Structure formats: C-alpha cells, structure tokens
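SAMPLE LOG
Freezer: B-3
Tube label: C17
Construct: single chain, 332 aa
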Amino acid sequence: MKILLSLKAGGPETLELAELADPVPQPGEVRVKVMACGVNYPDLLIIKDQYQVKLPRPFAPGGEIAGIVDQQGDGVRGFKIGDRVVAAPGWGGMAEKITLPATACTSLPDEMPFADGASFLVTFGTAYHAFKQRAALRHGEKLLVLGAAGGVGSAAVALGRAFGAGVVAAASSQAKLDAALAIGADAGIVYPGSAESLDDRKALAEQFKRAAGRDGFDVVCDSVGGPYSEAALRALAWGGRYLVVGFTAGIARIPLNLPLLKGGDILGVLYGPWAEREPVANRANIEELMALYRRGAIRPAISARYALADAPKAIAALAERRTVGKSVIMMQ
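STRUCTURE (predicted):
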C-alpha cells in the first residue's frame, strides 16, 4: 500500500510517500481501505513534534478517515467486509489502508459521501462536545466563533445555527468571512492580521462588543488564540463561557482579572481524550450529529481535495492559514 510517512520532525516538506506491506488486523480489529482522509491542524503539530502525543517514527499523519472494511480479525462484531465506516484514529490515516479496533469505527450512512465522512468526526465532534458538554449552549444565546472559516470554526458556525444561537463569525479576510456567512452565520467581523499591542486588542474588543450588542456574547468559541483571545474575552457577557479549542495564532496570554470581572468561565475543549474517557456520551454525540446531517441541518464545508501524493500541500496550506473550510485527501 502507499502511505505518507513522517521520517523526521519538521514541516510538510519532510513527509515522504512510500510503499509498505498491507497491515494485518489483529483480534478485535478491522482493516479499512481508506477512501478519504480529513486534514486537520493536529496533522501539522504531530509531524513537528509539537502535539501533546509524540509518536515513534515512522508514522503517517491523518486523524480521521472514511472507507470500507476489507478484512477483519477474530472476534469482530458489528461490522463485516464491505461495510462503510468512519473513524478518528488520531494518526495513520494518510495511507491506502489502516487497521483499527472495530469499536473505534462508526457506520457511515449510505447518503454520506466518503469526503463528508472524513470531514465530520473531528471538527463536528469537537464543536458539538464544546457546545453540549462544555458550554451548554442554549437557543437564543449569542455565539462568537473565531477562525470561523477553518475546519472547527466552520463546524461551529453550522452547529451554532442548529442549536438556535445567534452566530457572529470572525475571520482574517473578507473571503473567509463570506464563506462563514454562506454556511449560516448571522453577521461577521474581519479581524486584523495583527493585534499585538494593548491598543490593538482594545480596538478589536470594541469591534467584538459592537457586534455582540449591549450585553456581550454568551459563548465564544476560540480555535485561534494568540492576541485575539483577550479581545474576544473582553466582549464576553456576564456569566459567559469562553471555549478554548486551539491556537493557530499561538497560545494566548489572558489577564485573569477579565474572567473575574465577567463572572465567566474559561473552558478547555480537548475532544479526543474526552471521547476516550466518555465513550457512551461520545457515541450519543455522534448519533445526534448523524441525525442532524440526515436532516440537512449541517454539512462539512469542503473546499479542496488532494491526492495522497499532494497531501503535504494540503498541510502546508493549513500551516499558512490559507485553508477555507476543510481539505480532504482522496485516495481514488
């Protein structure tokens, strides 16, 4: 099989396309012929050894896949050869085949294309967990989404609308903002490319506050970080909830007097470890997400598709913040 390998720590240019023997499923495992693999920001971090998990090399990036079961080990229940499945293995997905515990797989509905399936579990799973278990987002509340045109951001916009919230999208360019508005945001903000000084952050905070109205945002979903977090936190409503999802602009430095003055909560959102610790709750979340998909309430915002050999280009676009919505690696 063909596989994209990380042989040394570094950026996307260090990845190499190779051929390895097909993996053999062990007892309790299935082998999946990968049809599509989603591209996510952790793919960049993991090959640079900047992720919370450091893997022995060689390994393949690729944290979410959709495909077809083509072989299974002893003792597998619930799946058979030919079944369509999705999974979020964390890594290893940028390959033509992968072995996984059968319990890590979810059936892929017939009406969901492989590209959609490979763009679903990580981004929508993260945003849904953030809104349901962490922030308890309610109908009629005001939601601000930073990085609203990214993978998690675009999922948060779509889910915020499905939850019945008023959604304000914030993005770094008008083109990205237009993409967020097209998938359901009610209003939007283009934030500057830099907000390093205190005056810049206060000016951006005033921009956020004007978008929120007099009372501020009930929930902020932040997958950007950096200097933008403080500005968004200043626009939080009394008793609001601030969701820390990621740091594409760097890890934020937050003055802790701000959540005190807001009577607010800063909530970490780390979907993968939560899903491992709470498999029953996660399974319920996935079933609810699939129901929303079937009703047409949510759809992955796929903007680019790449061949496996071109996957480094997809990761590079993500690193340079050129990606709008979701990129997918298609194996065929």
